[in-house]
Amino acid sequence: MKIAIFANTYRPFILTPLRALIDFFTDKGVILMLEQELYKFVVEHSDSCPDTIEIIRDDDFSADIALSIGGDGTFLSTAAHIGKKQIPVLGINTGRLGFLADVPVENILPALESLLSSNYNIEERSLLFVETSDHTEFEYPYALNEVSVLKQDSSSMISIHTYLNGEAIHTYQADGLLISTPTGSTAYSMSVGGPLVVPQAQNILLSPVASHSLNVRPLVVPDNWVIELDVRSRSHCYQVALDGRSVILSEDTKLRITKADFSVKVIKQRNHTFFHTLKSKLMWGMDKRN
Fold it and tell me: What is the CATH number of the domain that holds 133?
């Protein structure tokens, strides 16, 4: 078995779970691979690093499983490194809430045991694919959580002319618009009042950010629909972010958003469900009157 490891090197305390992970797999016939920056971080902050560890120098690598050590942001970055390789990812949470990275540090050893015994479930998570009318290229044109279309200046709102399968459905006058996957429904979309959607749902969510119209609500559409956006701004530009990776585009650049032709495989513990996460992370459904 070959395991690729990615981590948030801005959090020095990842060394503790990382050391536990390396010690656990020693003498178990498992080949460990560390992303290049992570390898440098370990060498600089640790007394020793096993000589058997391989270094991932770019995204041209293969592995049976990937481990993400950090928060959900680290998980999103790991998914971008993996791309279309279909390598299942297990998220070990050293961050805050952790919907994608949902294995607590204190449960790392049982989770690793489950990996060796193949005692886990794999969930397929859909992504969004973004194209531009002027062929502006993104470093990675896919989003596991959401595509955020936001105003670039600090004061005036933007107008987002929105088309679904070629039909003009609305012009959002707002600070922005989020196009989210079901996975992203518990991320940025939730913070602006978007609905919670189970990860297995075949939908795309449209949630306005600080809408100027109070009668505009989030919209859920089938994920085989085509979404096209034509943005108008007083500054003649706007910001688009794919899972936080942002660029500034001219208002002459239109966006076309569709479901990607591949998915991300997420490893989940057998006793862990989406609703378990909602209850433990968000206190969903909890009634303080009891």
Answer: 2.60.200.30
